[in-house]
Amino acid sequence: MNFLCRKTFSTLGRRVVAQSQQQLWVRCMSNYSTANSGSKEHIQELINKDDIVVFMKGVPEQPMCGFSNVVVQILRMHGVEKFGSHNVLDDDSLRQGIKEFSNWPTIPQVYFKGEFLGGTDIMMEMHQNGELIDELKKLGIRSALLDEEKE
Amino acid sequence: MAITSEGLEKKLREELECTHVELVDESGGCGAKFSALIVSNKFEGKPLLQRHRMVNACLAEELKSIHAFSMKTLTPAKWEEQQGKS
């Protein structure tokens, strides 16, 4: 766990430097919350839209919280680069709504095929015990870690 | 009142009948960041998500003011097995 964190945080550091201030500003302004973005109907739509959906702080290219970062980096290790992601820092209604929807007190939250998988601890444990590979397989995704082991 | 490791541990031991609890306050005393190792018979036969939900329910009030809480949930058998290894 510690090793992973150190590794992922240094990766994050480089990304942060690479991103210009202007891009940051545009991102902050681009996703204003709408009144009903935290409603059950809207969240249901979001989790149905993509096979993998992550509600997180920040965006995958620049997570704004260590826990959200860990989830993104775990998915990356398995070769998953494309997934639905929703930044709760840009949307307070969604931030509250998703906690109620999942009955889960913290962010990030991960959904696979519309089903709640868990937060960072659960992702980490499933990553370590191999279950994540099976869960990805159910979505028709072959984990990149399987190919890495062979080499 | 600030949340303390002792307070959290007491509640977990009572409500989840934990046989072993280790709580680390990683916030430097302000009570906003904890990591926990929770061992309980009640986890037996329950999937990971359900175990975490049990802990979340037990500490629902406290979690509102804790910024970061990470946990490991083990059955007594699994805990003993891990002890044996190390």
Summarize this entry quickly:
The complex is a heterodimer of chains A (151) and B (86). Chain A has 151 residues and is of the alpha+beta class.
**Order of SSEs of chain A, N→C?**
HHHEEEHEHEEHHH
Rounded Rg of chain A: 15 Å
Span of the ends, CA to CA of chain A: 24 Å
Report helical residue fraction of chain B. 40-55%
Average of per-residue pLDDT values of chain A: 84
Q: What kind of assembly state do the chains in view correspond to?
A: heterodimer
Please write the string of helix (H) and strand (E) elements of chain B: HEEHHEH
Largest sheet of chain B: 3 strands, mixed
Q: Tell me, what's the shape of chain A?
A: globular
Quick one: which chains have the greatest interface? Answer: A-B, 14 and 13 residues
Can you tell me the overall shape of chain B? globular
Biggest sheet details of chain A = 4 strands, mixed
Family (chain B): Belongs to the BolA/IbaG family.
InterPro entries (chain B): BOL2 (IPR045115), BolA (IPR002634), BolA-like_sf (IPR036065)
Protein name (chain B): BolA-like protein 2
Organism (chain B): Holothuria leucospilota
Description:
The complex is a heterodimer of chains A (151) and B (86). Chain A has 151 residues and is of the alpha+beta class. Chain A is built from 8 helices and 6 strands; from the N terminus they run αααβββαβαββααα. The longest helix of chain A is centred in the first third of the chain and has 17 residues, at 2-18. The two termini of chain A are 24 Å apart. By secondary structure, chain B is α+β, with helices and mostly antiparallel strands. Helices cover 42% and strands 27% of the residues of chain B. Chain B contains 4 helices and 3 strands; from the N terminus they run αββααβα. In chain B, strands 1-2-3 form a 3-stranded mixed beta sheet. The radius of gyration of chain B is 13 Å and the shape is globular. The mean pLDDT of chain B is 92.
